[in-house]
Amino acid sequence: MKILDRYILTTYLKTFLSVFSILLLIFVLQMIWLYIKELAGKDLDLSTIMKFIIYGLPKLMPLVLPLTILLTSIMVFGNFAENYEFAAMKSTGISLQRAMASLSVFIVVLAFISFWFSNSVIPWGEYNFFNLRKNLAKVKPSMAIAEGQFNQIESTPYNIKVDKKTGDRGQFLEKVIIHQKSPNGRKNATIITANNGELISREDSNTLKLVLYDGFYYKDITPKKFKERKKYPFAKSSFDTYTMNIDLSNLKKVDIDDKSYSNKYSMLNVSELDYTIDSLAVKHDNNISNFSETMFQRSGITNVITPVKTIISKTDLDYIDDQEIEFKEPIQKQRVIPIDSVYTGEITALFNNTKNSQFLNSAISAINSIDQLVKNKKQPQERELKWFNRHIISFHEKLALPFACIILFFVGAPLGALIRKGGLGLPMVIAILLFLTYHFIGIFAMNSAKNGSFNPILASWFSTLIMLPLSIFLTRRATADKGLFDFDSITEPLKKFFKIKQNDKESFKFLHSFTNDELYNAIQNYDTLEYSEASRFEAVKLLNSRGITTDTLIENDIFKTDTYKTSEYISKNYKDHSIFAITLYVIGIVLLVLYFVFKNNKLPSLELASIQLSIIALIVFVIYYIKTLLNLNSFYKHINAPKRKPNVILLSIGLPLYFIIFIFLKFKIKEDLKQNCLDNLK
Questions:
Q1: What backbone torsions phi and psi does residue 505 show, to the nearest 5 degrees?
Q2: What is the pTM of this model?
Q3: What is the pLDDT at residue 320?
Q4: Spatial separation of the C-alpha atoms in residues 89 and 84, rounded to whole Å
Q5: Is 515 strand, coil or helix?
Q6: Residue 595 near residue 614 (C-beta atoms within 8 A)
């Protein structure tokens, strides 16, 4: 390994480990905060808490590792560019690709490690983490009685309320009310009230011994006869002293190390997921086949229509009539279709009223039965689809992670070389913005894929595929030693297409010191004073800003006609309408995006409101867009310049992309108004 490769790799590794440690600590603290309700107040020992953190660490890697690679790449290569180390490399003939070569090998190795980690360690961690959380949920908080509220004692039917607690351990109670639920848990069957009470048991005891003084005991009685129950009978008794022993042993009977659950999709590796997906697909096909067979049987078709064993042709019927053959049962000629003809009449004419009635009743019954069957099957099918899609997403997430690491490296490294900033300032901001974009695109895609509205395979790769063209673009620009964005390469073709003239680079600051008479003189004698023609327009604008209107300028023979006044009026209308249109456009698009966000997060009321408001805003936007087009048509018709009018096809495309059209048309109208002003000056 050459000295340069060793230097770049060691610099990258030092930064990588530092950033990885910091980000991992941040995400661990966030995880603890997320699950704090599952840990607090349960007297858990240190080993259990450490297990909770260790088992939860692997699931953080798909977040921490890509963000670490992105941030480290921007910081390291930004540092190299800021300290002119890249300039020194280029002076010796070392290109950016050559400088990235050793790191590219390291990132590829890291990608393979990340795949092994996601395929082996993450399922192990998820398996242990899920079972530990399931077991911790059974550990109830320590029994505590707070003043002024009902306190449910977990795993018991008792609910206790006290007005006041006194004593060094809070053992003396005043105004005690106890509700005891019925065996079915549906109502409070027993109520005990007492003026005073005392907790006798120790804090670490498995039995709560409560002695009550001077109170009443109420208990509902449930008679065997239903009519007697409507009288709501109960038994009432009073007592001077009443002792209760409540068993609390079930509060701590939990095996923390129990690991009985193992069939969740996140607990499986690639081979297990592949087998499970295949099994779920076969199961789904069998369910659909059984369901279709059930629906066919429910239709009742096989029970109504029976096959005809003997077909009598028209010739046979004529022969029977001629020979006057007698049958035990009369032949109904009107219900026999000749085999050499096609029946085109009403189907009901082939059967009598009784049969037709049977057919209709059977059809109605079959439709109702099938409709109910479909409704009952809908929710289970949706659950099965979500479960199936989650397995597919989990399978492809493991494959997408290593590619995401490689692509984010080729986003971060050239980006750092282009922005030429190291440290934790600008690189941190850019890295977080890019990663949040990458992460939230993935979340929205996967939420849509879970319910089947988006392809689950594409959803797992979607954010990575979005970053792929960005990585290619940035790498090419950094390799060619160009800036981050070359706006001229974008704006120049559009300016040509829109027929927008180049802005004058001349400065007109000297006009601001002129008096009004000097400005008049500059407009009328610009050629004698050796001013440019553009200075005349700037002088007109300056006079307008000083309160001298266009009408006054026309009266003072500055303009040939009042054409410019009308042009100015039309352009002002266009400006007002276009500003209102862009405002409505932005509101409509933002509300439309919020609609999809609310839909993914299952907020139906906000979802409905956002889509309704979005539709209203976009409809009004279309109205004002049409108004701007009418203003444009009037403007170019008035100045008699139809060739300068924007392309009709482009204006049509501009409806969905109005934010781009708005900017360019604003400049175009400004330039054409300026030209119209110059054409009308004397």
A1: -90, -5
A2: 0.56
A3: 46
A4: 9
A5: coil
A6: yes
